[in-house]
Input
Amino acid sequence: MAGINVKSAKILVFSTEKISDPAIDMAGLLKLHYPPTVYTISIPCSSGVKSRWILHAFEKGFDGVFIAADGSDCPYGESCTEKTGKIIGMTHELMRAKDIEPARLRMAAICSVCSESFVKQMKSFNEYLLKNSNN
Amino acid sequence: MPEKIINASYDALVIGGGIAGGEAALNLANNGFKVLIVEKDLSIGGKMILLSKVFPTLDCSACITTPKVSEISRHPGITIFTGSEVKSIKRKSETIFEAEVIKTPRYVIGEDCTGCQLCEQACPVLVHDQFQYNLVGRKAAYIPFSIASPRVAAIDIENCTLCGACEKVCPTKCIDFTQKSEEYHLDIKTVIIATGFKLFDPLMIPRYGYGIYKNIITSMQMERQLAPTRPYNTILRPGDGKVPDRIAYVLCTGSRDVTVGNPICSQICCMYSIKQAQLLMGALPMADVTIYYINIRSFGKGFEEFYDQAKGMGVNFVKGKIGKIREKEDGNLILRYEDINENIVKEAEHDMVVLSVGVLPNTDSAAFFPDGELKLDPFSFVYQSDPLSSPSKTSIEGVFVAGTATGPMDIPDSILSAGASSAEAISYLNRKL
Amino acid sequence: MNKKIGIYICHCGGNISDYVDVEKVKQSVENEDGVFLVKTTMFACGDANQKEMVDDIKKNELDGVVVASCSPKLHLITFRAAIELSDMGCPVTLIEREHFIGGRVAQWNLLFTTSETGKEVVTKLYNELIERDNITLLTGSEVIASAGSIGDFKLKIKKTPRYIKEECHKGKLQEAINVCPVVVADSFNFDITERKAIYHNFPSEYPQEPVIDIKNCTRCGECEKICPSVDFSMKEETIEINVGSVLMATGFDSYTPSEGEFGYNHFENVVTLPQFKRIIELNDKKLIFKGKEIKNIAYIYCVGSRQIKGENKYCSRYCCTSAIFAAIHTKSKFENINNYHFTRGIRTYGKQEVLYAESLKKGDIYLQSYEDDPPVVNQVNNKILVRINDILTAKKEMSVEADLIVLVTGMVPRADNSVASLFKLPKGRDRFFNEIHMKLRPVETVIDGITICGACQGPKNIMESVNSALSAAAKSFSYVSKGELELEPIIAKIEKDICTWCRACAEACPFDAIKMVKDEKKDVAAINNSVCKGCGMCLPVCPSDAINLIAYSNREIESMIDALAG
Output
């Protein structure tokens, strides 16, 4: 694993265009503070994340990957929650096979006004990653 | 005195920018018509955007309203006037109405405001925040609420001291105290009345002690405490800021009650109270929530299951209408009621009471039209001239009605009513054009 | 090949520049590869800057633009195109399984709020329907096959003949009915009365021609001898139509109580609410049922709804109001009527509450029990008694000797709803059709192009059904109004060479947009472009990674990750 920036861990967030993006965006508008090394990639739905993208992120030096799930708000239907969960499960297996600590991949439902919840998640994820960096 | 009169024309005038008005406007605009929404408040979204979660799905209300509100404000076929009111609507010819609309000034140039809130921070005046139903205060220069649309500041000129602090700090210099009201004379082809409803004011029931005993709030105030854009970080009782652990709901406050002039059932209070009770059980796991009811009206799709869910979560349901409430020295409240199960009059102590207030008609719209032309029904809602075949027709041809302007209804019913009114308005426009 | 990229760094009026030294940012990127110009600006979202950006792009032929500003959500839209729907004139085909139209409303008589009868409401609507040339009415018809998707549904319809030619000699019809030897229960009147095999339901019914119930007809030929319009040579037709969108309004069935449920079919005087309403209409001055004059009526509520042990956990919404309205009407039409309501809490919601108050004023008695202690119907000597432990009087046991017991039955989904499985319409836990989202999209279904309305979506009263129908009509129309479908370009793409047709993607797709096709010798997956919503649920499940989403391909996402990783 690449060296961790002492102040904050590098976190990649997969966020969904219609649901979690507005929340993350509003966190900025409301001037809520969260670690500056959190980067976001927008996709249509959290159940469309490929495991290989997550592994690629770890390979390239991200300390943690966070999936902002649509949960029951998903505009594409109810099957989203189950499918997103399955992807996490699958990816955890692949991570274990590559000796990557599964806890470095997290998922939580972020609704479109859940700015404070998102910030809380980022702060606690960041704290965890800093504490558990194994070099 | 308005400085100038502006003339314009639109295919449809939608009075009210709540969920029903918004939905009707979208349907009309999506079919190619030019729509004007006139909204009295500073933001569209009505009451729905201020709610916490909706029943029975427990979707976050703001989360489902904000995309709709964005769609409406972005739509090229829809023009929105906020802070504006209809003064009059008269028939000019067989196909045209003439509407007079007054736009009150915000004293802020909307296009230049970036929503930075620096004016809010600088303003020295503190008044009650009407969007938080008086739970907290706001400044005289303010953004209505964080998810308001448009997200543009306004000056509450009545409370403003004209100190100019806001003007000094505004980075785009968009505060303009010289703004005047604008009067619009509009040619309109069809009107949809979507003026929503008013909430019952429990001051009309003195024996409940609202307004005197501090720890009694209305359901709308509790809704704000539970919403994501909430005033406090937790649920508090206003008297002393304590987190309550024995909360009581008084259903049918102002409904099914001839003594306060409202004999009908408000249709939504049973369900919203059950919803709030479930949210409270989640937010305050140690708390007890008791709902005092006459009948639980859980009649819609998924409602009965929602009621069972609440019972399963441990919400107490007591059949007995609350007769009287009195206060103890510590701010706790004693509720007096007839317990139907035990057939005796009992008293119960709670540390916070929520009055489930009912839906009252908004009678403003009758005044827009020449005397008596817009008929109201016996309960003062807008009269539906053909409720079984054309529920959105009013007593005036070409004027339709949508949502709670016709009577109490929940969100899905309001949206369907709006869909129906826009379908009828579109047919009407196509026949006349 | 050098890319020309323009970078605009926004001060955001201090929101950004108070925290970030924008000039330094500018300097640090100025000399990067591919950067053609870097500008700082006070408000990137403002009109002035927008125009400047457009000019810069045009003049310098920039390949890409990076805007470092505040909310991407607020301002990205400014740079994308908006899509709009437009206009009018849509032909409609109305497919009705029965031979007559009007549905359940035609079977009701007096209706609450307007005192119109059901038949009047239906006739009024259908007079308007006939006026319009672009409505085609097919009765006795059912959809038997469906192919295609939104914009292009190909439906096969089976039309059963009436066996009566279009122009009917009205005078002869009544004679023909008289000579028909077949007598069956009349389902239009809820089996209370009877009809012949050649029949029509009520005079102003539409279509005006009667019908021969071929299943019960004995082909004796008597009617043929009298009426020249009878034509047994008419055959079943199969009609194929091509439509852009489909509106489902298949309605509901009334709950039929099971044998012995509150005495149904055991005791003579137990009827359902629809039967009771018909009985009221068929009587005048005195209420007589099966030879007996009715004085005491017991109404038992929530039969077939809010069941503890049965499938129907839901409330049927319309029944409290309907039953109380019938009770009031009965009391005003006949003498000496006593109404006893055995309820589980009255739900006359909204303005309907005044009926409850009116019924109480007229002297009706209301009793209530909880769901675990329902009323019991018993025969004692020659009397039928309904017994309840009434919670409104502290569980006092009360019995009423009932001349007539009315079971207030709820609405259930139609038993025969084969047409729904044709379209693969999803159903909720209550077995009624499911809309996509109750609040935001109450009339649409997950199947693109198909809307639902009325009681097939859930129990509702007439006004609510009409509201939902008008909404669904507007929605259905919006699917076809432009003559072409406009779609987002973000759809999935399958690499045929890698695909092994394992079905995983087809199963994952919630919109049924993936099917198998033959590609030379191989079976591969293919995406239906007009249905694919670009959600991406098929992406992660493919074992060979053969699916990519346009604009979110592996290359695009992974290069974004590379750039962010630094």
Q: What stands out?
A: Helices of chain B lie at 19-30, 61-74, 118-122, 165-169, 219-226, 269-283, 303-313, 411-432. Chain B touches chain C through 72 residues (CB under 8 Å). DSSP finds eight helices and 23 strands in chain B. The first strand of chain B starts at residue 5 and ends at 15.
